[in-house]
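Hi R.,

As promised on Friday, here is the backbone we talked about, encoded as structure tokens. Could you run it through your design pipeline when you get a chance and send me back a sequence?
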């Protein structure tokens, strides 16, 4: 996948309904972005057409974002809701899991519009910027859906860090343990709604101070090629 992008985006290029409050223009050193995606899903992992649920038929319905420093200082959060187009009606199971309702996605832009809004919110990104997620699912799904819709998230021009990997390397915990275990390991209780992207991302900020950041260079996934 090849991403053609620029680091400069503006709210002024967006329709009025997609414009968001501007964040502070300057990011502190070592700022990173945590992304947590929520996607369409169904009970028993079966899509309405009978297909087994997979990344190929799940559509992103939320891009949860948290900007923070490596030391765990939360700078800003945003929830970019997305209107699915392949399966536009959310299942009751999906709404129950994520708390995202049909009305919420009906009022949201489709994927390219949500990416436009996210790019405008992020603005100019520093050269040392990285983005993160808990595991590689979010990176792979964001890349795949961006390619499908010819959308260009600015973050894909920057390295990605798998927080699950660096946390496990730091603590020596077993591979099978998930994010809930990571919070419990540090005596932290989840704040907000489980499986709501912005809340998941915000909670990931709380474990950043426990990471061994000296491991970062060897664990980064290089960005997509820019042309």
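Update: got your reply. Pasting your designed sequence below so it's all in one thread:
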């Amino acid at each position: 996948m090849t991403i053609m992008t620029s680091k400069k985006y503006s709210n002024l290029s967006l329709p009025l309904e997609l414009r968001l409050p501007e964040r502070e223009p300057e990011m502190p050193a070592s700022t990173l972005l945590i992304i947590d995606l929520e996607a369409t899903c169904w009970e028993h992992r079966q899509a309405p057409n009978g297909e087994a649920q997979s990344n190929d038929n799940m559509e992103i319905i939320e891009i949860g974002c948290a900007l923070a420093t490596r030391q765990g200082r939360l700078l800003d959060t945003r929830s970019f809701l997305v209107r699915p187009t392949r399966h536009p009606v959310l299942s009751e199971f999906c709404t129950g899991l994520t708390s995202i309702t049909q009305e919420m996605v009906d009022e949201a832009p489709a994927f390219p519009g949500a990416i436009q809004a996210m790019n405008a919110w992020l603005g100019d990104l520093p050269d040392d910027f990285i983005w993160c997620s808990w595991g590689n699912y979010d990176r792979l799904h964001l890349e795949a859906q961006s390619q499908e819709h010819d959308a260009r998230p600015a973050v894909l021009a920057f390295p990605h860090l798998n927080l699950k990997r660096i946390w496990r390397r730091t603590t020596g915990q077993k591979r099978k343990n998930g994010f809930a275990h990571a919070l419990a390991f540090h005596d932290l209780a989840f704040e907000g709604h489980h499986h709501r992207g912005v809340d998941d991302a915000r909670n990931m900020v709380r474990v950043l101070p426990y990471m061994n950041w000296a491991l970062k260079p060897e664990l980064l996934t290089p960005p997509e090629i820019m042309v």
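One thing I noticed while checking it: The chain has one domain: 11-221.

Thanks again,
M.
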